[in-house]
Design a protein that fits this description.
The chain is an all-alpha fold. The protein is built from twelve helices and no strands. It is 74% helix and 0% strand.
């Protein structure tokens, strides 16, 4: 019998890691509830605010669901980043990383499995909140954004993964004392991402920094769809270009920090 190909072996290892985290997630109803809870709270808060502003603001009246779309897309970015970080943190809490990396498992295989489980977490959390918005507010995110939802979702999810890789690398290198980065770091970019307002509102010196973020172009594109009824390809291709830079930077940072942690024997101590 011939030996399995390296690609098949990698697929099996990725599937094993994915199944471990999927069972861990889906077998615990409090974990699933937590995934839906925060997006639902955000959706309710901004949904009721939208109902109020519809009576006061012509702009919001013309673009129904402006804030609801923004908060659900923002949660895609946040949950994508958090999903990557949480998977690594759970392995660190269980003191499991050392065992994983004395096996044939490669870092990119673990990362691929973590990306898959992050996607599952986002679909449960953001998808659950989006479904609740339909009976509560009569708002459907797919209906509001149409086919543009798919590229917006993909860019924000991948951007979250890139940020997650950097955060995971820092936690591996610095230890669990840095785990608060998993929850707080992403909010450093929220004010300059133009989630709820145009980038033009920002001070002039900050605007070039904002345009370095794929999220800024996505949220500008979202408003173009909702207010003007058009998909802006220039904004989308700008987002793709910025995303490529962030993915390369995130992967490079993760590998550098992972190798430094491995050389220092930190992978065996992260649970201490």
């Amino acid at each position: 019998m011939s030996e399995p190909s390296p690609l098949l072996l990698s697929a099996r290892r990725i599937r094993a890691i994915f199944r471990r985290h999927a069972y861990l997630l889906l077998a615990s109803w409090p974990r699933v509830l937590e995934l839906v809870y925060w997006p639902a709270v955000q959706m309710l808060l901004w949904g009721f605010l939208t109902l109020f502003l519809e009576r006061e603001s012509g702009l919001v009246a013309r673009a129904g669901g402006l804030f609801l779309s923004a908060v659900l897309l923002w949660d895609t970015l946040f949950r994508g980043q958090l999903g990557v970080a949480i998977c690594f943190l759970e392995e660190m809490y269980a003191r499991h990383l050392g065992h994983l990396f004395v096996s044939p498992l490669r870092p990119w295989e673990l990362v691929a499995a973590v990306f898959a489980i992050s996607l599952l977490r986002v679909l449960i959390g953001v998808g659950g909140a989006a479904l609740l918005a339909v009976p509560i507010f009569g708002f459907s995110l797919p209906h509001a954004l149409g086919w543009a939802l798919l590229p917006f979702f993909a860019v924000l999810l991948a951007f979250g993964w890139a940020i997650g890789l950097v955060i995971v690398g820092l936690v591996l290198r610095l230890g669990l004392a840095a785990e608060s980065l998993a929850w707080g770091a992403i909010f450093l970019i929220q004010p300059i991402s133009g989630v709820y307002y145009p980038v033009a509102v920002l001070p002039q010196p900050i605007q070039p920094i904002a345009w370095c973020l794929p999220s800024a172009a996505v949220f500008e594109g979202m408003r173009a769809v909702l207010i003007e009824g058009r998909f802006d390809p220039e904004l989308f291709f700008w987002a793709l270009g910025a995303l490529a830079v962030w993915i390369l930077a995130g992967a490079a940072a993760f590998l550098a920090l992972f190798r430094a942690a491995r050389r220092r024997g930190l992978l065996l101590q992260v649970g201490e």
